[in-house]
Amino acid sequence: MSAPDEREALTARPSLYAYALRLSRAEPDGRLPEHGYPSPERPLRPLSPNDRRNARRIAADTITPFLTDPDAVRAAGEVERRLDELGVRDHHVRWALTDLPLENEATARALGRRLTRTCTGGAAMSLGLGLLDRLGEPEDIPYLRTIGLLRDFTGYAVRALEPLDRPAAALVRLAVRVRDRDVRALVDALAAGDGDTARARLVTLPRHPRAVGPETARRIAEAVRLADVLREDRANAGVLAKAAWLLNRMASRRDQRPEILLYEDAVTVYEAVVARASDLPPTLDQHAILLALALDLHSGPSHVLSWPPGRREALLTDLESLLHSPAWAGAADGEPAEPVEPVDRRRADWIRRTARQPFGHPGAGGTGLRVEVAVRDPADPDVAETRILVGGRPVLPEAFDLGPGNAPEELLDSGRLRATSEPREVQLAEAYCTEGCCGALSVTVRREGDQVVWRDWRRTQAGRRGQPQLPAYRFDGAAYDTEISRAENDHSWAWPAKMTARLLTAGLRDRPELLTRWDCRPAWVSTDHRDPDTTVLSFTFLPGLAEGRKDRDGPWLQFHWELPADDAPPEARAAAALARLEATDPKTFARVSGGSREHARELGFPWPESG
Question: Structure pTM?
C-alpha cells in the first residue's frame, strides 16, 4: 500500500451507521440519546444557481442507473461518489426518489441496505433510507433504529421503520424529538424494557397540551403498545383514563393533520375505552374527555376510521347512555359543588352546550347536507370549526389534512354557503399557516333549477398525494336552504364571549362608520386564545382614512381592545361596545399591538414593552 493510500485508510470516515452505533453503545443502561446525535460534519460542494434549479432532475439522472445494478457493493460506492461530486443534497435525493420506478426491487433493496450500512454522506444515506422506506424488510429494523438516532435522519428512518415495527419507530421519534421530562422518563423505561415502570409513567404523564401534542400522543400510544396494555391490564382505571385522553389528543387538529387517522390501533383502543368507560369515576374531567371523543366520532376525523358496519354508531349509543345517566350528568351540572377554577367552569358550560350534539340528527343521513360548528374541550382550546357532513359523513378529514374547517364567522356569518344562480367559489378549509404556504380546499356552489350543486373542487395542497378526488354533490334546493338557514341561526355552540364577538362583528359590518370616523378599520373580532372569556376587537389605525386621503405608504398601527367577561348577556355587552365606539375614539382606550416602534413614535402612541 502506498503512503497516500495508507494515510487515506487510516483517516477514513466511519460510516454513519457505525458512528451512530458506537455512540449508542456508550449510553448507560441502554438509554436512547436525548435529542439524538449530531451527524459528523462534512463539507459539501457549493451548488450553482442552475444546479439548484435542476437539482431534482440531476439527482434522478444520477440515481437511476444504479437501481438495477446487480453489484450492490460497487453501485453503493459509485453512486455515493457521484452524489458527492455533484453536491446533491439529501432533500434533492428524497424528492427525486419519489417519482422513480423501481423495476428490480431486489437490486434496489440491496442497494438501499448497502448504503444505509456503509455510506458516509447525507445524500447517499437519504437514498438508502428512501429505498428501504419502499422496500424494507424485518432484517432492516436494527439498522433503521440505530440510524434514526442521528437527528438529521430521524424523520427518514422513522418513516422507513414504521411499516416494519411501529413501536420501535415511535420510541426513536420520542427519544429524539420530545423534550418534556415526564415523557422522557417514559422513553427511558421503554428503552430499558421495564414494563411496570413504563406503565406507571404512562399513568402519570402530564396533561398539559404543550407537553403532549397530537403527534406525541400517537407516538406514546404506539411505543407502549396501548391496545395490548388495555387488553392485559383491564383493572387499571388509570391506564383506561390515560388511553381516553390520548385518543382525545390525537383527534386534535393542533398539528394540522389528524393524528388519529395515522394510529393503526385507533378502532381497537376506542372500543376498549368505551366498553369500560363505566369503570371511570363520573367526574367533570372524565365527562369532558368522553364527550370530546363522542363529538369526534360523530363529525370529526375519528368518524372516517375503518369501522366495522354499525360499530361506530354502537359506540356513540353507549357513550350517550353513560353520559346522560344521573351520576355522569350530575358531574356536568356542578354537583356536589360548582366548579371554582375558570377552566373547570368553562368545561362545565361546554358540556351543557355540547351534550346533545354528537347523538343523532334527523336528516343527516341519505345524501343530505348537514353543517355543524364544533368546539373542542376547553381544557385543550382550539379554533371553532365548521364541519361539513354529506350523507352523515364528514367531508374534510379525508379531503384535506392540513387544517380544520374554516371558522363559522367565515362560512356561516358571512352567508358564503348560500346558493344563487351565480357560481361562487367557497373556501371550506385552510392550512394553519396560509393557503399560499400549504394549501386550502375550496368548492364552487351554484343553484341549478331546484337543486344546489357543489362541484369543481379545488385543492391546493403542497406535497400531498393519495387523497380521494371529490365528486360533485347535488342537494335538493329547498332542503339545502333550510339547512344553511338552520346552521346560520344556530348559536348554541357559542359561549358568551364568542357570542359577543359575533354580535360585535355584525354591528361593525352594518355600521362601518363607527371605526372609520376615527381613521380605523376593523381587522378581526374574536376571543382571546389564552382567555376564552375575553372578547378582543383588533383594528388598524390608518391616518387620513376618514377623509379618504390615507397615505398608502404612511405610518399605521394595530390596536387590540379587550372586553373582559362580566355578568351582562352578550347582547348587552355588544351594544355597550358599539355605543362606546360611537362616542369615543377607541385609540384612547385600546392598546397598541402591532405596526412598528417608529410608527408609534411618529403617531404619538407608546410602543408596548416586550414580555
Answer: 0.89
